[in-house]
Write a structure and sequence with these properties.
- By secondary structure, the chain is of the alpha/beta class.
- It has ten helices and ten strands.
- 39% of the residues lie in helices and 17% in strands.
- The model has no long low-confidence stretch (mean pLDDT 92).
């Protein structure tokens, strides 16, 4: 199903959706569920980010706070997240690539935007105090994701859609244009396996909103439940299958760990 959204405005870039876009995951954390801190060192992180770009990623999503199952809701300190993220963002921006930053902290949002980051990706939907205002004050593209502390939904698809619509209205009320806002239903965040796949199966419904739409299911536990693979590294084929289902239904962006395989 075609989406009315043909582009996504992300800072100085007008990202065209003439083809699906790959957002590569770059975790600069010691405890990521998918890579176990393999890229925690800034030099290793920068090298890996450049390798993902070489593999065909369109966007590099840099995150300094683990959101693995059971992660600490209070997150890392501002100082620690800054130490992890800033050097990597600076280098990747200088290389001339589209850089996304996975953060919920308004201070980090403001700082990375000043360094030239192009996208702010917030798993908390810009709910932290000051986050809406900080995001609106930039010219970055904004990924609004749904997450919940409960799996008690009457209608998971309708409730996620209503949440995304509400967050969009709040951002627009602060002057953010709709073409900057990308929706993400939060596959794996406060949903059962069945609820996650209900969201995936309803991609066309979300795409019909006309907003840029992203799916991020790479290596997640629901993929493991469907394929029988417990180790995240064994879920690559299932993750690519899920990404293809999302793209076939109109999703324009997929957030993935395995860039080359997904591009292929």
């Amino acid at each position: 199903m075609a989406n009315d959204s043909k582009t996504w405005r992300c800072g100085k870039y007008e990202l065209s959706f003439d083809r699906p876009r790959i957002m590569g995951v770059l975790n600069v954390t010691p405890d990521s569920f998918s890579d176990g801190g393999e890229h925690f060192d800034p030099d290793a992180a920068i090298e890996y980010g450049l390798a993902m770009l070489d593999a065909g990623a369109d966007i590099i999503d840099v995150g300094g706070e683990s959101t693995r199952p059971g992660f600490n809701e209070t997150g890392v300190t501002l100082e620690e997240e800054r130490r992890r993220v800033i050097p990597v963002v600076e280098r990747l921006v200088k290389e001339g690539f589209i850089v996304s930053v996975d953060t919920s902290k308004p201070e980090i949002m403001t700082e990375v935007a000043s360094l030239g980051a192009h996208i702010l990706n917030d798993i908390r939907g810009f709910e932290m105090p000051g986050a809406l205002e900080a995001a609106a004050a930039t010219d970055c593209g904004l990924v609004v994701m749904h997450r919940s502390a409960t799996t008690d939904y009457k209608d998971v698809v309708a409730e996620v859609e209503a949440y995304l619509q509400k967050r969009q209205r709040l951002l627009e009320g602060l002057g953010v244009s709709a073409d900057r806002i990308c929706w993400d239903p939060g596959f794996g965040f406060g949903k059962t396996v069945e609820q996650n796949f209900a969201l995936l199966g309803s991609t066309e419904r979300f795409v019909a909103s006309g907003q840029p739409y992203r799916m991020g299911l790479s290596r997640k536990s629901s993929i493991g439940a469907a394929t029988g693979h417990k180790a995240p590294m064994d879920r690559i084929a299932g993750s690519i299958a899920g990404a293809l289902i999302a793209v076939e239904q109109g999703a324009q962006v997929v957030r993935v760990h395995d860039c080359r395989q997904t591009v292929d």
